[in-house]
Each structure stands twice: as C-alpha cells, then as structure tokens.
Hints:
The chain is of the alpha/beta class. It is built from 15 helices and 20 strands. The protein has a 5-stranded parallel sheet with strand order 4-3-5-6-7, with helices on both faces. Strands 19-18-17-20 form a 4-stranded mixed sheet, covered by helices on one side. A 3-stranded antiparallel sheet has the order 10-11-12, with no helix packed on it. Zinc ion (ZN) binds next to loops. Zinc ion binds next to loops.
Amino acid sequence: MRIKHANELAGAAWDTYQAGRQGHSGIARRQQDRLRALVAYARAHSLHFADRYRDAPDDLSDVTQLPIVTKAELMRDFDQWVTDPCVRRAEVETFIADPTRIGRDYLGRYVVCTTSGSTGTPAIVLHDQQALTVYNMLGYVRSLPTALMSLPGIWALIRGRGRMAAVFVTDGHFLGNTMMARRLRAAPWRAGMQRLLSALSPLGELVENLNDFQPVVLGGYPSVLELLADEQLACRLHISPVLISAAGETLTATARQHITETFGCRVTNYYGSSEAIGLTFECSSQRLHANTDWYIVEPVDDHHQPVQPGQLSHDVLVTNLANRIQPIIRYPLGDRVVIGIESCSCGSPFPTIEVVGRTDDILLYRGFQGESIHILPLAIATVAEETPGVTTCQLIQRGPSNLTVRFIAASTRNKQQTWDALRTRLAAYLAEQGASGVIIENDAQPPKLHPSSGKFRQVYADCPGVNAGARHAQRARRRGRKQGLTPPVQFVGEVVLQRRYR
Length: 502
Ligand SMILES: [Zn+2]
C-alpha cells in the first residue's frame, strides 16, 4: 500500500515537472485530456452534472461548450452534486459542526472545508485523496525550486528547526486550519514546529505568542502581516522569519515592500480558494502563474462572456481538473483578474494572473488608555458573517468611535433579532480587542458598492484622518529612517494557505 502511494507521488511529481518543461503544447494536452476525463466522470457519477450536461456534446473540444454552474446552484443540490452516494449534506454538516473533527477526514477519505459567506453563499467543499496528491505536488515542484535558490535561506530554516506559524481565522473547518490540523494528526511530532494562531485574538496576545514561538516561516493575511510589521518596527515584536507567505487578501506592492523591508526576508503571495487549492504559484519574478495543467481559468465579463488577456475581468470561472468527489467545472469564484499577455521574465510557460481582490481597510479605534487599536477587516467581517441569520454584511467606520453596519437577514421576520445578535457579537469582539466606546449603528440600507471606487468593499473606513491613510503616512516616515536592510533569503515551505477564507 505504502509502495503504491510512493509510486503515485513520484508519478505525480514527475508529471508536474514535465508539464512545465513541455511548454504550451504539453500544458494544453494535459488540460484537454483531464477535462474530458473529468466531464465523463461527472456525467457518470454526479446526478446534478448528468442533468446539466444533457445537451452538452459527447465529444467535448472546449470547456466553453459546458454551462456555468454557480456555488448557490451546487449547494442547493449538494447530494446530487457529489460523485460518491455515501456523502450526504446533512451528515457533512454534522461533521463540520463538531470542532473536535477538524483535521479528520470525512468518511476516512475526504478532506472537508467550509468557505465563508463573504462572497455570498457559504460552501462546503470536499477533496479526494488524488486531488490532495496533486495539490501537494504543485506546491513542491512549482514553488520549492524558486524558494530553494538561496542557501542561507535553507540554513536559516534548518537552524530555526522549520518552525512555522500561521495567523488565520482558526475556529472552524476552514481550509488552512483543516490542512494544518490534518498534518499534525498525521505527524504529531510536528506539534512543536507548527502553530496556528487566531487572527481574531487581540494583537498584544498575538505578538506575545510569536515572540515566544520564534517562527522561521510565517503565514497570514496581508493585513495581519502589515500590522505585525508595525509591531516589529515598534520593537514590541522580535522575530526573524526567513519566509513570509501572504494569502487570503490582496497583497499590494506597498504592503509587500513594507513587510519585506521590516523583516528583511522573502515575502511570497498566493491566490487560490477552498475550491481551487494550488491554483497559482509565485515565480522568481514575484508574479503569480496559474497552474493551467490542473486548472482552467476563464476571465469573463458581467455577462459571463470571455475577456481577453490583458483586460480586467468582472469574474473568473475556474475548473478544477484534479478533484473528482465534488466536480468544480466553470465555477465563478467572484474575483476580478487579469491574465498576462506577454510571457513572464522567469520563462515559465504557465500564464501569469493578477488578482484585483478585496481592498478592505484596517479600522482604527481608541483603546481604554487612549492607545490605537487596529481592527483587522477579515477578522471583524468573520465575526459579523458568522452571526446566525446574517446573509451578507458590510461594515463601515464613519468616525473615531463609529461602526456602521449594513446587513441582509436570511429572514425579514427575524431581522430585529438578528440585528440584536449581530450588534452583541460585534460589541463583544471590539471590547475583546481593547477598543473603547465604539457606537455600533445599523444602516437600514443593504450593503452597497463603494461610492468612489464603484467596487464592493466589505469593510472600509469613511472618515479621513482616522482610517488607514494615517497609518500609511506614519509607516512611510518610519521607512525613511530605516537603513541597512538585510538581503532577502528565499524559501517556500509547505504552507497551505487560504484565500480570505480560511
Ligand atoms: Zn514568472
């Protein structure tokens, strides 16, 4: 059994390596063969796809011959979507309601993770063992060689005994959480080397934990990493990571520079989701490439028509060619992307992908002693979203002590009850973070697009002088004073990262 597994791993690693070497034709051939096999499998084993593909051609030549299937549609028809009749939604929901099962495989063979409702409908996603092998190989074969270019980096990693900390939302079967717990279960000796810290915990506590643990690899949302960089500059945090991996939110060039300069180490970026693990890898030129031998990525406009490379899309459809248990085929991810026109200077044949993701603000309040309290957008959005009865929400800071909430309740009859629960949860969270005297108000309007950018921003500050702008200016002043940066070292470890998503 073990030999068979080793053979499978070696075969997958070799194929992943070869796909890159064989260039565009090798990638296109793999994509086409895998799409045909996946569609045939979905038709034969998923009642939902058998029905949806009734009119699709038998001899499929292009993915656009297939209809688009949305998360909402698939979640409604969950029991017919999955390709294993033993998988039942009611049972999976019981499984994920139990936190003691985080890191265990459902039915002993499927990884289960949930996505947040930040893009509308929360989803439950299952991955099979073959898919997990593919995701691992994509990480090892595509990311590792870029990372291992620096010997000092490897040495620093060995010296630091590979200690890895990840700061994400930790309560629940979110992707990063599940994968880390799963790895610890498989190899309990890793417990001293890996620590998952909650992005919801107060900043002081986070800093204390990191000082105590001294990670050499650090993963987290860009907003968390920016705050930690500020803490390091303020000499409250004292860590020396050799690699920092950002995921889950947009990593802006400014944020990357700030984090890189503060910690003096390599900062990598990742884009993927719970439905599309290992969708991208970052190359030596710091650009994201899509793993198009295992994924089909289609940028589309607001009518789901194809958008040409070089142009910003309205949405992106993704097809996961590796996972059979729950086929993801032409599935809108809800992100705006640009596929590169020209080939990247790194020489990779995989297309570059730029993601225009969420650009939420860090909210800034006063603490009980008048100190600044930073509230992470992703963390506070999670607190709001997970309030029972809340479908969609938007949080706006309109003044030094204000938090305005727009939300849609699942049932209009219980709207007042939902609001009471939502306000209580937000107040408790803000108090736990040390924010004092924040007045939480309900805006009767539903969540809206941002008045100036026209984009949907879930958490933002609309009060000049109080919001993140002040922080950026302060940071720029500090940066001007910072001299003698250490040369960057490179390494990418087995950090399975998550999109906003947890
Ligand atoms: Zn590149």
